[in-house]
Amino acid sequence: MRAAASYPRVRGKKRALLVGISYAATRYELKGTVNDAKCMSYLLRERFAFPADSILVLTQEDGDPYRVPTRENLLAAMRWLVEGCDTGDSLVFHFSGHGVQKLDNNGDEVDGYDEALCPMDFEQAGVILDDEINETIVRPLVAGVKLHAIVDTCHSGTILDLPFLCRLSRTGYWQWENHCRRPEMAKGTSGGLAISISGCGDSQTSSDTTAFSGGTSTGAMTYSFIKAVESEPGTTYGRLLSAMRSTIRGGGGDLGIPGPLGSFFRRVITFSCAQEPQLCASEPFDIYRKPFLL
């Protein structure tokens, strides 16, 4: 494929695909998405030692036509992310842009709707359904491979179609629910572990949130995620979720992101309190004991 020729030739155990789509000059335009990708790249390099040449970034600002986030390029980049993955690999997929819901046609969704990502050209080329995302970046994961998807869109709770969803119970604890409606259509991995962290539930929307530093902006979910990771290195998944929820519910929190990354932005000004961070996985685990590591 021609697009793959312009993508990094990865030799290490860590690689990442970061996508920020602004939908510039359309009525769907978003302001913070490209900055989200830049901030995630910085976090991966400085906090988690991802090599710069193992991070593929797709934005509309890129001069390389194969790194513009069209539907075709995005699917090619997703295949690049998991291609040849092997034991010990850590993969990251980050998407900041629009997400939508579509009627479920194969009966595998509990709520009757598929979730979907919107590429830059979604009005002409179509969206990317969760079924296709699952097939492309979840099913190829072999034993010993770990994928984290960090998704900052509307309707993103089960965007990878993973079978287990972690919800906050009435008693205040995060608990796993099995969302595999049709066991014969189980959408797990090929032995690896897939985890998605998203900005809101399938029925919720994520507002175009602004944080300012030199005129730049960022998404609420990306901001709350980076703040939680930077504020408490070595945190568990449970503490990460709770910290993200607290930041969103608290309108950004009183303190900004500590350390050098804080120079990217000050704090988020507007949050949607209806947003609830979501955790999904290909298999359940103890979120209060398992450390969050990329």
Automatic annotation (TrEMBL):
Q: Which GO terms describe its cellular component?
A: cytoplasm
GO terms under biological process: proteolysis
Superkingdom to which the source organism belongs: Eukaryota
Query: In this protein, which residues make up the domain named Peptidase C14 caspase?
Result: 13-281
Which sequence ranges are marked TM in the entry?
Answer: none
The molecular function GO annotations come to: cysteine-type endopeptidase activity
Q: So what family is this one in?
A: Belongs to the peptidase C14B family.
Q: What is this protein called?
A: Peptidase C14 caspase domain-containing protein
